[in-house]
């Protein structure tokens, strides 16, 4: 279940109705920042790991203004940095720090498939990533120090970006509104709102970002899947064709037939729904959710559960489900599991949690279908057997 939304006196329904993807919102003391604390040294340690995406932005003191470096970094790099005007950003911190992953439960008034990750930034005095625009929704939670935010809600011209640098920074930015955020304060920004945050002293900010696949991503990815899955024996046909009025004329009937093919109108909704479920749950890092080299049997899983009754979800594994008529589909890290509708309650329980204490669901532990579901998810690398105890 989702925790209480960090929206102050505003209800989730009210936020979705009046603010989501419409207008910015400042919420003072939205969350206790000590609940999700992470030190600058711990963040720098994550940025030194080879499998973690991290960036360093130097507004000055680099080879050029707004110079971007990509991690992983050596500890010596941080020791050589100037005293001000730089920012370290680390993506997907929720995948590595369970305490940070818990933060996402506060935002489950937005569907799981829309939630992307928690990025954490550390900035020295005057540190910034420059005035810019995002194409996705973001909640900016101040956890340490202070940051001054200025925003502008007017559309940004395509030519209003600094050329020849790796970052999409605005050449011209004039703030319409301005706030100073203290620890615990949070600013929501919908897509397309230009914003500029500048640290006043050292500060840390958590950014809860949301997925917004572009039309090109959706169409391109489905087209790739369609090409791979369809047999090559289907070709364009035009029986009963009328005599053309001119050989070079591409007539309206031909155009309609070709458009119908490109629109994939012959593809059933079921096929599209199943592809979407797999697409939306694909792991952000494709090698982060891997099947077991030696699959386990349901009997082995059942025996394991009696000895080790705690399971954990792979932090990279996304889970969503659909229910239509007599079909329950669970999508897990790009996999489709077609299930009996009687498994709806355990499927919801699996989707709702990151840690699974099986002694709380003893009513299912003798259910063959439930054990098979756990077996499939464990073998797919979606659920992991917790061996820490």
Strand and helix map with partners:
Blueprint: H1 12-18, E1 25-27, H2 40-47, E2 54-58, E3 67-70, H3 75-79, E4 86-90, H4 98-101, E5 115-123, E6 138-152, E7 177-181, E8 186-189, E9 194-210, H5 215-229, H6 252-262, H7 269-281, H8 298-307, E10 310-313, E11 319-324, E12 327-332, E13 335-339, H9 344-352, E14 355-357, H10 368-379, E15 383-385
Antiparallel strand pairs: 1-8, 2-3, 2-4, 4-5, 5-9, 6-7, 6-8, 6-9, 10-14, 10-15, 11-12, 12-13
Tell me what the structure shows.
The chain is α+β, with helices and mostly antiparallel strands. The protein has three domains: 12-210, Cupin (Jelly Rolls); 216-235 and 251-280, no CATH class; 298-385, 50S ribosomal protein L16 arginine hydroxylase, Chain A, Domain 2 (Malonyl-Coenzyme A Acyl Carrier Protein, domain 2). The chain has helices spanning 12-18, 40-47, 75-79, 98-101, 215-229, 252-262, 269-281, 298-307, 344-352, 368-379; strands at residues 25-27, 54-58, 67-70, 86-90, 115-123, 138-152, 177-181, 186-189, 194-210, 310-313, 319-324, 327-332, 335-339, 355-357, 383-385. The strands form three sheets. Strands 1, 2, 3, 4, 5, 6, 7, 8 and 9 form a nine-stranded antiparallel beta sheet that branches. A hairpin with a 2-residue loop joins strand 11 and strand 12. It is globular.
